[in-house]
Queue: 2 jobs
Job 1
Amino acid sequence: EAQVTQNPRYLITVTGKKLTVTCSQNMNHEYMSWYRQDPGLGLRQIYYSMNVEVTDKGDVPEGYKVSRKEKRNFPLILESPSPNQTSLYFCASSLWAQKNYNEQFFGPGTRLTVL
Amino acid sequence: DQQVKQNSPSLSVQEGRISILNCDYTNSMFDYFLWYKKYPAEGPTFLISISSIKDKNEDGRFTVFLNKSAKHLSLHIVPSQPGDSAVYFCAASVNTGTASKLTFGTGTRLQVTL
């Protein structure tokens, strides 16, 4: 089954404790992206990657890191989480083709609470 | 600066009637528009899209209309069904040639009542 998986689905942590949220897709997609969803703000892009070893900042990258060492995986790293990073996080992937938009497939989400 | 706006946080419609969800945008560089549907505890799923060179796209019960001069698009669901109850996100894309960026609205919660 074609899908985007995220782990963990739920996480409660404390300020300053490094954490990683994993994202994996089995559709051989070049493009992957991380979003956060907050009440009244919709989904905002954190980082995206157009292929292995190619990443770039989205709209709200502060406090986050990403890496793309393999095509299927795109982990989101919070080196020193803070309470304002409490949010619902989504990973998404799509085929990449210049000058043509391709539908993004989303993972089920990770609800993160930073105390 | 919210470039994609959904001014109605919620909408309630009776089963069988038409649901109309609205979306406004400010960036004239957007060249592709999409609607995503989201159920609780799930990720958004793609519903329907429209290119900026068109003014209408239809897929079954779902139709998206684009009015470029007004920078406005709408999603029509006819007839509405209880299973359509979800949060709907409008999204817009700017394909810069080096990256295709997706900007989302804040979402409209649709409730279809019996």
Job 2
Amino acid sequence: EPEVTQTPSHQVTQMGQEVILRCVPISNHLYFYWYRQILGQKVEFLVSFYNNEISEKSEIFDDQFSVERPDGSNFTLKIRSTKLEDSAMYFCASSELLGKGYEQYFGPGTRLTVT
Amino acid sequence: KQEVTQIPAALSVPEGENLVLNCSFTDSAIYNLQWFRQDPGKGLTSLLLIQSSQREQTSGRLNASLDKSSGRSTLYIAASQPGDSATYLCAVMYNQGGKLIFGQGTELSVKP
């Protein structure tokens, strides 16, 4: 069964460094999302992407964050200058309409640790 | 403000029991509602999706119901097993293709 994949599974970085989190959504999906989950807290929405542009972003998704779909298969989240409070599990998700009612499928996550 | 709440936060039951997890949402104008399972340190696995026009969905031992007017959904798990131990998350979508708003989850422990 098709699944969303994410790399790396764990990323450790120093404060102020740039990180890129990578996702490969399910191939026929058209809607793409990033969420994060700080340890012990709710899953929070960051950004959604459709038709090669951001369709919605949360207050968390400030100028330090950006997303790209560089080659039609990958979907990346970049954090330009990481802060300690960016430490969290980052989940990519994708969905389609046809017959699935926008059901979102999540990847296994990337655990980001900022030291 | 659109919020999702899940009760209880944690639940421990003996194997074989039937159980109900609750989810409530403040704005009843939802597009759909999804139930997920999350194992410790892992991703989210979609269990069931209910469209706003539907009253319930079933998959195996799981049954999810939706009462939009009262802003509630329940996830019923029949004949619970130790392998059902996980955190169960409820999430609502208000716009088609839009973001999911999550509850804080119910941590379920099924004892052998």
